[in-house]
């Protein structure tokens, strides 16, 4: 696929100067929704509806909604590939998310929360699938690390913004949902208003051909192992992170007077600051040294090791240290791993579709993570949950070893 504003990798795109700030803006908005809604508003809403069954109910809501994320992300990516456009999908997903979140804030049963967040995940993953494809579309190979670092900054900055908004709207969750929906809708409008693209027509193909092509990228050796490594690391991370509010409520010994929701507001900026530093350093150094695997492997191994801190020290000090180190590890992994993936895509013309398949490694583990976490917590408590998360993260580090096409 060739866009008029996406010259070959040997030369920077004409829009490169203004594209990176817009990519940062749209990714900040996306992660503000994911972490603000998924990390604070949904758990708080579920706990308020049925406190006695909050762990199991959250597992159900998060798991079922992640199925929609898994389905809509690669499908939307394939559609944007076929239409040859990214901007309409980014805009449509952002505006749809605003509408869904405005309604979700008024849900009064667990079933309605689940339905609402399923639709929210669908809208957000339409947005994400097209947005993810912008990097391989328009950024030259030599700048993929920097671009991926900029994109990766969306996690710490967006997470901090989203949690800050959600924590302050805990008493009126409908307001929090509405504000976060407005943030992503506004970002989509700005991005599509200030980036131009030319439609690239494609010959229509049959449904059977589309389905076969959809999963063909997993037959590619390096892409398959990158997929596995990402899936394991994300599974380990979200098995713990999805239950952070409940961990602070039921497991960690907080200082007198510190409420769990306020504790999330303290821990999140610490974690996100670590992510910011490691995202920038990892992305730039991986470009300069032309090495990706060492950064990914070390950061994934560190993510596994730090899970031991809350296991052996379920204290506020332990959580502060855990959040800082876990942020460092996760930020570096995601920034450099995204750069690696763009270098092992099977076919450049199917970038959005293949990145959408890779995003199953982001969304798919979120289906399993709440269910696994719910089972572990209800049968063994919160301590073993950190051990499970650590093992999964280390396995994610080992999965990068077989990748052959990138150093």
From TrEMBL:
- Residues crossing the lipid bilayer are 20-43, 55-76, 146-167, 173-194, 231-249, 261-282, 294-313, 319-345, 357-376, 382-403
Q: Record's superkingdom?
A: Bacteria
Q: Which InterPro entries match?
A: MFS, MFS_dom, MFS_trans_sf
Report the residue ranges that make up the Major facilitator superfamily (MFS) profile domain in this protein: 222-407
Main location per the UniProt record: membrane
Q: What is the recorded membrane topology of this protein?
A: Multi-pass membrane protein
Gene3D superfamilies reported for this sequence: MFS general substrate transporter like domains
Q: What is this protein called?
A: MFS transporter
The compartments listed are: Cell membrane
UniProtKB keywords = Membrane, Transmembrane, Transmembrane helix
Q: Which GO terms describe its molecular function?
A: transmembrane transporter activity
User: An example Gene Ontology cellular component term from the record?
Assistant: plasma membrane
């Amino acid at each position: 696929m060739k866009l008029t504003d996406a010259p070959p990798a040997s030369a920077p795109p004409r829009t490169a100067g203004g594209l990176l700030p817009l990519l940062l803006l749209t990714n900040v908005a996306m992660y503000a929704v994911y972490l603000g809604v998924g990390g604070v508003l949904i758990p708080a809403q579920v706990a308020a509806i049925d406190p006695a069954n909050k762990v199991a109910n959250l597992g159900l809501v998060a798991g079922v909604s992640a199925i929609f994320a898994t389905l809509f992300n690669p499908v939307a990516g394939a559609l944007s590939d076929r239409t040859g456009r990214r901007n309409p999908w980014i805009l449509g997903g952002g505006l749809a998310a605003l509408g869904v979140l405005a309604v979700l804030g008024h849900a009064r049963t667990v079933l309605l929360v689940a339905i609402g967040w399923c639709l929210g995940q669908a809208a957000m993953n339409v947005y994400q699938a097209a947005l993810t494809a912008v990097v391989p579309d328009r950024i030259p190979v030599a700048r993929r690390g920097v671009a991926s670092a900029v994109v990766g900054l969306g996690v710490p900055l967006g997470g901090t913004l989203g949690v800050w908004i959600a924590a302050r709207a805990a008493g009126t969750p409908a307001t929090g949902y509405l504000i976060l929906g407005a943030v992503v809708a506004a970002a989509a409008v700005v991005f599509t208003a200030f980036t131009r693209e030319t439609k690239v027509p494609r010959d229509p193909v049959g449904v059977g051909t589309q389905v076969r092509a959809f999963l063909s990228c997993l037959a590619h050796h390096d892409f398959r192992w990158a997929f596995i490594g990402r899936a394991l690391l994300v599974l380990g991370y979200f098995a713990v992170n999805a239950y952070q509010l409940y961990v602070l409520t039921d497991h960690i010994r907080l200082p007198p007077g510190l409420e769990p929701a306020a504790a999330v507001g303290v821990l999140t900026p610490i974690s996100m600051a670590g992510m910011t530093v490691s995202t920038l350093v990892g992305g730039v150094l991986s470009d300069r040294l032309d090495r990706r695997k060492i950064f990914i492997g070390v950061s994934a191994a560190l993510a596994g090791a730090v899970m031991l801190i809350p296991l052996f020290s379920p204290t506020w000090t332990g959580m502060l240290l855990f959040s800082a180190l876990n942020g460092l590890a996760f930020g570096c992994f995601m920034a450099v791993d995204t750069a690696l993936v763009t270098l092992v895509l099977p076919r450049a013309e199917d970038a959005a579709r293949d990145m959408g398949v890779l995003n199953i490694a982001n969304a798919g583990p979120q289906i399993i993570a709440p269910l696994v976490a719910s089972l572990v917590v209800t049968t063994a408590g919160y301590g073993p949950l950190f051990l499970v998360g650590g093992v999964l993260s280390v396995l994610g580090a080992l999965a990068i070893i077989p990748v052959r096409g990138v150093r």
